[in-house]
Amino acid sequence: MKKTKSEQQQDIRLLGKILGQSIYESEGKPIFDVIETVRRSAVSFRREGNINDSEVLQDKITSLSDDQANTLSRAFSYFLHLANLAEDRDQNKRHRRILLENNNELRGSFKHTLLKLKEQGVSLDTIQEFFTQASIVPVLTAHPTEVQRKSTLDLHREIARCLALYDNPLTEYEQAELEIELAGHIKTLWLTRMLRFNKLMVDDEIENAIAYFTNTFLPAIPKLYTRLNHYLNTLPENAQTNTPSLPAFLKMGSWIGGDRDGNPFVNADTLKHAVLRQSTTIFEYYLNEVHLLGSELSLSTSLTQVTEALQALSDLSPDQSKHRQDEPYRRALIYIYARLAATAQQLTDQSIAIRSTHVAEPYTNPAAFASDLEIIIDSLKQNQASTVVTLHLDKLFQAVHVFGFHLATLDLRQSSDVHERILTELYRRAAITFKGKPVNYASLSEEEKVDLLLDELNQSRPLVSPWQGYSEETTKELGILHAAALVCKRYGKQTIQQYIVSHTETLSDMLEVLVLQQETGLITQERDENGKLLPLSADDGLIVVPLFETIPDLQAGADIMDRWLGLPAVKSRIRYTQNGIQEVMLGYSDSNKDGGYLTSNWALYKTELELVQVFEKHDIRLRLFHGRGGSVGRGGGSSFDAILAQAPGTVAGQIRLTEQGEVIQSKYKNADIGGWHLELLVCATLEASVTAITGSQDKHMEKFAHALDHMSAIAQASYRQLVYGTKEFNEYYFAATPIHEIAGLNIGSRPASRKSGQRIDDLRAIPWSFSWAQCRLMIPGWYGVGTAIETYLNEGIPGKSETAEDRLKQLQEMDQNWPFFRTMLSNMEMVLAKSDLNIGKQYSSLVTQTSTREKIFGMIETEHTKTLAMLKKITGRKLLADNPELVAALQERFAYIDPLNYLQVEVIRRQREYEKSKVKVSKFASARSQRTIHLTINGIATGLRNSG
User: Per the record, a Pfam family (predicted)?
Assistant: First the structure.
């Protein structure tokens, strides 16, 4: 059932009205009138296309004083914040409405997916087997595209909570009271500083992530398991018996505190702090839940019986109160609480119990805690009190299996060139000789490095000496790995499992990490009295995960993994310490920045297929880790569609993917919305995996590969000609986008560029995509595709005899029948719908050199027109013509984004003129101007939603 637009519009009007009142009260009528004039002109222009409205809009903005510009940027930015809340509420209500109607239309829900698979002949045994073997892990990263402060996000949650209360029947007084509360929160929002004065540090990023666990993941994930169990139990073939408890197939990961690649502020202390904060958070949750259960489970032995195991657990309780002598569940929970408090004290070195407790033995591991909870569950079930379990106990029991004592697995990540420098120093300081020659590691050939490293892995003598003094970089990196070893020993193997090697280009890049693990206690080299190596321990070492990022790296990936898996020592390690699974990470950001949209997507797809073949050859299970960002140019778009469009055999129940920047806030702002996105993720992984097992999978690769290979080469050449082959492009980019201003925005601890200076090559992929989104051109999400399709249609492939009409029909068939190609075009269509050449042209006016401006923007404009035309040829319709509701919603949203774009251009122009002028501008005026630019960045990113 489609929800009427008016309900969402009512929410937006209500929130806009309250925001307007707040602005009027705080800032006065004159600026309020200016804001209204700009708003009406922008809305009218978007609706009617009247050029006069556009002129009024631009004239009004150029005439603003600096103070007025600042206030206007805040007003439109906060309106977009509120519009997002209304849109999210609308989507959530629509999901619930479909579920309440008890139909099967909600794509991506457990009910829809399970029934769909049932209709396709997938058995319940196959589905249950999937969950037994599956591993689905969203991984939070601190990559800097989230522009909102935590204070702002907290207010968003309060406003969303108030909006949700409107769904209840309200008396006249209750409605008035609710509007007063909303007004209070929105006034607080208006008077809360939107921007950070200081750059985020790693500790701040850790706290921001912890807030998402507290508000979203801890309540949402246990409920997700309960919900899934319910729908599994309602399947027809399972009507008589309940499914067994689900294993912990969905868990959380994080990079925050362990990702050093390009971030000089991550060290051993941040790693230990991240783990401590995660552990403290989960213990606070457990202690609170056990305390609530102690209040809840008041069952008396005068009215029910208990199992012997429960009675024994109760007898261990230090509680001597006469009031609870007949309440064995409460007594047992007091004992559990005491053990849990002792465990928390032992692992966090702090007392975090919320009530006084007794001395007790700490739990040795989460399984022991879960075992005690299971005794309570079994006793309740065996004594006709199963419904009591469903109140809270089942969710707590599930949470222990998911979160353990560590909350989320923390990944380590570092660049391969850092490892090479460290080993070069270690070998030099140790004066090691190999094959009769002193080792200068950096100068060795690849084969020599591999031979040396394999030999090193068979050595028991240390390469690192405690008496040597090492460089700051080497000392820091060794310190982090030593800290990781201590963390794993203290909190368990689940705490840190992966070591990701950025810029993996060779086999030695992976072997280096094994050697460094061996030198720091993560990998042991225990031998018997005869000097023979002892069998590997299951807890030994971290998984070395290569990250293939650029186009050449992706193309070399399968060969590197073939050599890696072919090493006996590596294969043995995978089988005994990694459950037979090897993980490979694919980078969407750098491949796109390197080769453009079409080539990046196609290279990733082909690499996945090649990896499947290599892993099948070695009989090792593959788990892909997708480094996706928010923008389409960085792998963004619908995660559900993206997973279903993966190459055949590449999901197979194993998937990790990054959740970055503003995407975290968008998907996981609260437990309801977060739970829905996690359900989508599980359903997509289930569907992609079991349909591959049953043979209902993508069969189009071989049929269309030649065409896509040909178009990819053309698209890459076109993209690289613009970005790397046109000498004026560098000047244009740094002048016509707010890249410098983004670099100064305090949205993350990592620098925007790997090196100082103005080179596209050194720029990180995230600010690259983010800056193009700000000026509404978004070239990472489409440039080169139009030329590729047009050339293919007009010229075909040399040696092939198809007509242009045949080739068009082929592309149309690819769109209709091949999930990969259809999803790629669909995501590109969304990018093109959000791009705006008129606004992009305003940004180009910031380029002072006329010839440069006209040349580069002309190339962009030509390719944009061509891409729109080719997309229409394939799909047979205008942009998003199949989704008029989305078109209307975007048009409404653009009416509030456009003024921010015009304002951003104007203030950037003023700021640059200030910097060039001989007339000195006060530091206050310059800082105010910078804040206004940053406010517009905030607002535009908020309005576009998936821009980073």
Answer: PEPcase
